[in-house]
Design a protein that fits this description.
This protein has about 190 residues and is mainly alpha-helical. It has one domain. The chain has seven helices and two strands. Strands 1-2 form a two-stranded antiparallel ribbon. A hairpin with a 5-residue loop joins strand 1 and strand 2. It starts with 11 loop residues before the first strand and ends in a 16-residue tail after the last helix. The structure holds fe (ii) ion (2 copies).
Length: about 190
């Protein structure tokens, strides 16, 4: 189980910013927090435990992205009469950058780039007035159905990472296209970190 059972999630919670967040927000922001913890364990840990944390992070992140791309953004677009959310294109570029980064072997450079993208991306979704709040209000009438779709979303097949300079250069290009500094990634073996 990667996301909490929506049936078991309380209807709403008052956060410290005094915003009343509903079940969808809690589900997705909770998944961000879970993924943040796994990435921290992978970054700070060592050995088998760190490797296992990174394996779970990759799998969880790709599933989270898939839920947003295949369920959330299309549902919001439908409720807007076919017009995508204003931030949809930016979210998709970020998702592409994150998915590309998941192709690289775990290293300080990979972790730094993933953290930088998530630090820019997650607030777009979680902030007051952000994508999750906007979607929650748009999909209000079909909330239960969307939550169940999220809960039952399948695991995304995760390919092994690839230690290749060609892949490294391609990932840098995707990062740049999404608006990030390609220098976040340092070629393995060239600069001590
Ligand atoms: Fe996202
Ligand atoms: Fe997200």
């Amino acid at each position: 189980m990667y996301l909490r059972n929506p049936v078991a999630v309380t209807k709403s919670v008052m956060h410290s910013d005094q915003t009343l967040h509903g079940r969808f927000y809690q589900l997705m922001a909770g998944d961000h927090a879970r993924l943040d913890n796994l990435l921290a364990e992978a970054t700070d840990g060592a050995g088998v435990a760190a490797t296992e944390s990174y394996r779970r992070f990759r799998e969880g992140l790709l599933r989270h992205i898939s839920i947003e791309e295949k369920i959330l953004l299309p549902a919001a677009q439908r409720r807007r009469g076919g017009t995508p959310l204003p931030l949809a294109e930016k979210l998709r570029l970020d998702h592409g950058a994150l998915a590309a980064l998941m192709m690289l072997p775990p290293s300080a450079s990979t972790f730094r780039a993933v953290r930088a993208v998530l630090d820019a991306h997650n607030p777009l979704e979680e902030s007051p007035g952000g994508v999750y709040e906007e979607c929650e209000s748009l999909i209000e009438s079909e909330l239960d159905e969307v939550l169940l779709q999220c809960e039952s979303a399948p695991r995304v097949p995760v390919s092994p990472w690839v230690d290749s300079s060609k892949v490294f250069v391609a990932v840098k290009r995707v990062l740049l296209r999404a608006g990030y500094d390609e220098a976040l990634l340092i070629s393995p073996g060239t600069v001590p970190e």
